[in-house]
Recover the amino acids of this structure.
């Protein structure tokens, strides 16, 4: 069979057949009187074998060895080919992602393309400072695709780089939210937390609010606590359980207390917030430090307190923390009624007694506060504080007394 016929039947060009001959990979059995290559059926079968191995990615040298060396084990080579192919596919996927990123940015000229390529390369650096620089040093008019920034912020573990990425994403005006919302449902808790942090800096929308609400039920405390802080707003009672959990455990308890104050700014849910804090105060397992934090959270709820007031009350709490450590052995319990009133009871069911200063009655204090336009929150908190000032846990009593003294001396 002449070379032309072999080329037609095998689909291999005559040029490649000559190349195979030169390499000794497939040599024709003979030649015609005119010197033309003549291939036997066995030669044609070998050509098909060569082409089959080429489809697996083998080089011509590897093919020659595979066909000639009986010792050549195919399993090892195939495993190596799989590894090479996976690496090549990964490079191809990276190239495809880069091209799609550039296409999404709608570049107007090649300098735009080059700037974006530099950003992508910078974000892929193993050096955190290099990644941060890539985010912060781009030209003002260079618009990075929000999808790229969202993907980067979900993957970024360095807090400084993550902050820069959230800033850049916030400048995109709400774009990239879909990727972040998807991140709230990721398997990795770190990704979910980063998604919540980034969503909190985007413009409010129904989709963003719904995603944060989903995060409130996250099994990972760090995720749901981050979501609770972001959702805290007047009347947002769904965030209250997690915020109180933060106060109890001392995890950003100051921020959680401030957030509870925001929720209680809606007078319709004041009693719910105060009651929830009071329930935790009543827990037998609540130690002195925990009850002090809960009392300070109640102070935060009261409207009309200034920063100086909070500092004074906080100092009382600090003194209590550093004091003799008289625990809450009395098991005092605070209950809040539907009208915002409260009662403190000891284990025996009687009113707990104490050595704290009581001062004027609760009516006088709440009237003084209300005279300055305070909300119903102040009335509810004052009622609880009157009882806490007589708490058998002296440390808690000192915090409550400091708050009540502040009201007595303020003229409010």
């Amino acid at each position: 069979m002449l070379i032309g016929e072999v080329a037609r039947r095998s689909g291999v060009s005559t040029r490649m057949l000559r190349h195979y001959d030169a390499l000794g990979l497939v040599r024709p059995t003979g030649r015609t009187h005119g010197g033309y290559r003549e291939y036997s059926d066995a030669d044609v079968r070998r050509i098909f074998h060569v082409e089959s191995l080429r489809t697996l990615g083998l080089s011509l040298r590897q093919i020659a060895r595979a066909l000639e060396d009986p010792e050549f084990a195919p399993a090892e080579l195939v495993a190596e080919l799989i590894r090479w192919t996976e690496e090549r596919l990964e490079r191809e996927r990276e190239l495809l992602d880069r091209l799609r990123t550039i296409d999404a940015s709608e570049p107007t000229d090649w300098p735009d393309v080059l700037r974006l390529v530099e950003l992508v390369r910078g974000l892929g650096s193993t050096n955190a400072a290099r990644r941060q620089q890539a985010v912060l040093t781009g030209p003002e008019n260079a618009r990075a695709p929000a999808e790229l920034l969202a993907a980067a912020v979900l993957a970024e573990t360095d807090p400084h780089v993550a902050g820069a990425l959230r800033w850049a994403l916030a400048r995109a005006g709400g774009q990239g939210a879909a990727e972040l919302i998807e991140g709230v449902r990721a398997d990795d808790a770190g990704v979910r937390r980063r998604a919540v942090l980034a969503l909190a800096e985007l413009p409010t929308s129904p989709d963003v609010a719904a995603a944060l609400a989903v995060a409130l039920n996250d099994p990972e405390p760090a995720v749901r606590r981050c979501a609770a802080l972001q959702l805290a707003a007047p009347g947002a009672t769904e965030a209250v359980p997690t915020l109180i959990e933060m106060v109890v455990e001392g995890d950003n308890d100051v921020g959680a207390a401030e957030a509870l104050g925001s929720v209680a700014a809606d007078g319709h849910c004041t009693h719910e917030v105060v009651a929830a804090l009071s329930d935790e105060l009543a827990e037998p397992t609540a130690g002195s430090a925990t009850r002090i934090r809960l009392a300070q959270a109640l102070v935060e709820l009261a409207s009309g307190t200034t920063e100086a007031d909070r500092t004074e009350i906080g100092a009382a709490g600090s003194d209590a923390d550093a004091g003799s450590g008289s625990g809450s052995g009395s098991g005092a319990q605070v209950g809040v009624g539907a009208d915002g009133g409260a009662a403190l009871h000891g284990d025996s069911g009687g009113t707990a007694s104490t050595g704290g200063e009581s001062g004027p009655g609760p009516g006088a204090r709440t009237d003084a506060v209300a005279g300055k336009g305070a909300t119903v929150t102040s009335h509810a908190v004052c009622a609880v504080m009157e009882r806490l000032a007589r708490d058998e846990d002296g440390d808690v009593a000192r915090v409550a007394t400091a708050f009540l003294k502040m009201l007595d001396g303020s003229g409010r």
The beta strands are 30-31, 37-38, 333-336, 342-345. The two ends are 111 Å apart (CA to CA). The chain has 21 helices and four strands. The first helix runs from residue 3 to 10.
